[in-house]
Design a protein that fits this description.
- This protein has a 6-stranded antiparallel β-sheet with strand order 2-1-5-4-3-6, sandwiched between helices.
- By secondary structure, it is of the alpha+beta class.
- It starts with a helix and ends with a helix.
- The protein has 9 helices and 6 strands, in the order ααββαααββββαααα.
- The longest helix has 18 residues.
- The protein is about 35% helix and about 20% strand.
């Protein structure tokens, strides 16, 4: 079962996966030279399949930046390691990106670098601030697949505040937009749930039933059922599906 945030990202990305695109050959090397030439800190690069939220490749330099081996580092893990307070910001940024691209002719979409920053948990247990920069590099109409080339650079030494920023940088003579104000579709975590309730909810999102959750957390099934009941009450939800939707939108997990 896909993580809920990944599911939300895929729903957002569907907004720009439409018939306005035409086949576009993948152009990596020129973008790779451009992005890697102007990095503010140690960096690694990747190619992302937007439709499937999957890295097609990731460079070994991820080990130097985040401490993880490239072979073990996939997109769901990347998103899971992002600071909880920043996940809602990222979803809001992705909504803004979809809205920005939607009215454009598909060829115009290849002329912008998108960038925003967030915090990621390093393998050694501390957070580093990453500048995420990406460019659309290819599209296949038959499979409705959009590929982006991206570079993630460590900018912890440059940015000390925790307010993520989104910018659209034109690669040609078009207009650029910096520190874009976005709609608050998704809310940062407000902490209405206890740590244990969050653990139970996250395991429910993974598809585990009460008995499996009780084994995973080493608590009784009765306690799990009690947590489930309190979760529905706290979130004012009539069903588990409604609770899951509210939890994602409001940043409770």
């Amino acid at each position: 079962m896909k993580a809920p945030y990944i599911q939300q990202l895929q729903l957002i990305h569907e907004k720009v996966s439409n018939d306005n695109w035409e086949d576009h050959a993948i152009e990596i090397e020129a973008h790779k030279r451009y992005l890697l030439s102007f990095q503010p800190g140690p960096s690694f690069y990747w190619i992302l399949n937007i439709k499937e939220s999957r890295f097609e490749m990731i460079s070994p330099e991820v080990k130097n930046v985040l401490g993880y081996d490239a072979d073990d580092f996939d997109f769901p893990l990347m998103f899971d390691l992002i600071h909880e307070e920043d996940k809602a910001h990222i979803l809001n940024f992705e909504v803004a990106i979809a809205d920005f691209f939607r009215p454009m002719h598909y060829r115009e979409r290849f002329n912008y670098k998108l960038q925003y920053d967030f915090r990621v948990l390093h393998a050694k247990g501390h957070y580093v601030r990453i500048l995420n920069q990406m460019i659309v590099v290819g599209y296949n109409k038959a499979s409705n697949t959009i590929l982006t080339f991206g570079v993630n650079a460590n900018i912890t030494h440059l940015k000390k505040d925790n307010r993520p920023m989104l910018s659209f940088v034109a690669l040609d003579d078009g207009p650029s937009f910096f520190d874009v104000v976005v709609k608050s579709v998704y809310k940062p975590s407000k902490g209405i749930l206890s740590p244990r309730e969050k653990q139970v909810l996250k395991l429910m999102l993974e598809g585990l039933i009460s008995k499996e959750i009780s084994c995973r957390l080493n608590i009784s099934k009765y306690t799990v059922d009690s947590h489930r009941k309190h979760l529905l009450e706290k979130t004012n939800s009539k069903s588990v599906s409604e609770m899951i939707k509210k939890s994602i939108v409001n940043g409770w997990i």
